[in-house]
């Protein structure tokens, strides 16, 4: 870690310790002992700031609580990890986390009816309304990750033995959500380009109807899947679902927060997004948006009464188990929201950056793209068996040579040791970083005498 990054973290930690002094004081102010402790900390902070300014000094803090490493990969490196890119916190989200990190910080001014989406200080109620409007849906709730959105829907609609249509590339959490509700997944097969089509979805619905004697109770399809990040025929699939009068869940884990999503235009009855994957939010966080046809059932409130105490719990929503995000998770999402709303308008630019890098990678002979190409997303699955993996076959570090070289260039996020098929994500990188990334891959190839073409090579058809 560079000394300036190191000293930045040390300054932040020192400020947190100063904050701790105020937290332990009585409201009337610091006593003499506490004031002395404060002045000592300020002196230490000034020394750290001086080192930060000059780029001098030695590391004084290498662990948090004695065991946790300081996580500095976003400050030290270009991070191309496939699922971390769009979850990087904004500056404002990091500030919100510092301020609202305490467990129940959202509850400072919670009043009747004691429900998260009704809190007005901070403006959580307005945020829920803004989320629904932004996604062009009728109602929205925040949830602990996209998976809990799936779970809320399946627990509402799916009974034991019911069939649910999913993609052959569906995420495992979709499977678990269906299984937890007692349902059975029925997978739509892919075409020769690894795309889920509306026609194949209709065929699968007919197949289920013939086999079981009844229609599936839900169609749940990813806009972009997590394996290839291919774009599927999502709007047409929504139309097919509605032709059969089947509710349609749009899985926007890789779209909500990075590109525009219009739930009504898509034809979605439910829109599920991931805060920590695509909305620059602390994990676990996500969003579930619902149209008015299904809101009364999915957002049903508790009717149960205790047999001894006769207790009732007001308007707590059953599928959400009452309140959901109760602290830094939610406030980080709220703090990032203005940036997220703006950044989705520049999705085309992000895709251009993705294609720029992929074009550079394809100049290294033997490299292929397993995802659809040209890219429509920033997440991509590549195959470097014919390029970088040929070096790994004889290198003493095997596939880890590639990780070593990337790290030496200040690049992290690839699966350690992977030189055959692996995934990467360029989302959020600026053009200087994208150019640097492309040049680094070329330099590594040239170092090991891999042929590099001046013009890009078209990838082999999948």
UniProtKB/TrEMBL annotation:
A Pfam family this chain is assigned to: SepSecS
Family in the record: Belongs to the SepCysS family.
Sequence positions bearing N6-(pyridoxal phosphate)lysine: 277
Organism: Methanosphaerula palustris (strain ATCC BAA-1556 / DSM 19958 / E1-9c)
EC number: 2.5.1.73
UniProt GO BP: translation
Keyword line: Protein biosynthesis, Pyridoxal phosphate, Transferase
UniProt subunit comment: Homodimer. Interacts with SepRS.
Family annotation (HAMAP family): Sep_Cys_tRNA_synth
Entry cofactors: pyridoxal 5'-phosphate
Annotated residues for binding of pyridoxal 5'-phosphate: 146-147, 251, 274-276
GO MF entry, a single one: Sep-tRNA:Cys-tRNA synthase activity
Reaction it catalyzes: O-phospho-L-seryl-tRNA(Cys) + hydrogen sulfide + H(+) = L-cysteinyl-tRNA(Cys) + phosphate
Designated name of the protein: O-phospho-L-seryl-tRNA:Cys-tRNA synthase
Record-linked PANTHER family: CYSTEINE DESULFURASE, O-PHOSPHO-L-SERYL-TRNA:CYS-TRNA SYNTHASE
Function: Converts O-phospho-L-seryl-tRNA(Cys) (Sep-tRNA(Cys)) to L-cysteinyl-tRNA(Cys) (Cys-tRNA(Cys)).
């Amino acid at each position: 870690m560079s000394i300036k990054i190191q000293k930045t973290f040390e300054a932040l930690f020192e400020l947190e310790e100063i904050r701790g002094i105020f937290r332990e004081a009585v409201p009337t102010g610091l006593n003499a002992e506490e004031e002395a402790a404060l002045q000592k900390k300020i002196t230490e902070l000034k020394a750290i700031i001086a080192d930060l300014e000059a780029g001098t000094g030695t590391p004084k803090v290498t662990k948090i609580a004695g065991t946790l490493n300081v996580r500095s990969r976003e400050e030290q490196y270009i991070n191309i990890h496939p699922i971390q890119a769009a979850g990087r916190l904004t500056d404002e989200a990091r500030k919100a986390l510092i301020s609202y990190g305490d467990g129940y910080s959202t509850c400072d001014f919670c009043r009747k009816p004691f429900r998260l989406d009704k809190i007005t200080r901070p403006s959580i109620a307005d945020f829920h309304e803004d989320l629904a409007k932004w996604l062009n849906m009728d109602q929205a709730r925040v949830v602990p990750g996209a998976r809990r959105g799936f779970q809320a829907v399946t627990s509402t609609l799916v009974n034991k033995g019911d069939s649910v249509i999913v993609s052959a590339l569906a995420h495992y959490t979709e499977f678990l959500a269906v299984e937890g509700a007692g349902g059975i997944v029925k997978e739509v097969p892919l075409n020769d380009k690894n795309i889920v089509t509306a026609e194949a979805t209709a065929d699968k619905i007919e197949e289920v109807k013939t086999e079981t004697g009844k229609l599936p109770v839900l169609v749940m399809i990813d806009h972009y899947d997590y394996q290839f990040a291919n774009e599927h025929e999502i709007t047409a699939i929504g139309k097919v679902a509605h032709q059969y009068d089947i509710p349609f869940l749009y899985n926007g884990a890789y779209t909500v927060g990075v590109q525009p999503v219009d739930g009504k235009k898509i034809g979605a009855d439910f829109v599920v997004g991931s805060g920590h994957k695509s909305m620059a939010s602390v994990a676990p966080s996500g969003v579930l948006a619902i149209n008015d046809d299904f809101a009364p059932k999915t957002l049903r409130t508790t009717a149960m009464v205790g047999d001894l105490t006769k207790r009732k719990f007001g308007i707590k929503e059953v599928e959400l188990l009452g309140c959901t995000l109760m602290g830094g998770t939610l406030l980080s999402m709220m703090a990032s929201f203005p940036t997220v709303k703006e950044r989705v308008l520049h999705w085309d630019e992000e895709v251009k950056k993705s294609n720029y890098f992929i074009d550079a990678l394809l100049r290294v002979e033997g490299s292929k793209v397993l995802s659809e190409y040209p890219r429509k997303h920033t997440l991509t699955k590549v195959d470097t068996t014919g390029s970088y993996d040929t070096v790994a076959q004889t290198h003493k570090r095997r596939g880890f040579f590639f990780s070593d070289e990337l790290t030496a260039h200040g690049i992290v996020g690839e699966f350690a040791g992977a030189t055959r098929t692996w995934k990467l994500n360029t989302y959020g990188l600026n053009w200087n970083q994208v150019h640097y990334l492309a040049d680094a891959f070329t330099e590594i190839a040239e170092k090991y005498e891999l042929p590099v073409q001046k013009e890009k090579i078209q990838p082999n058809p999948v």
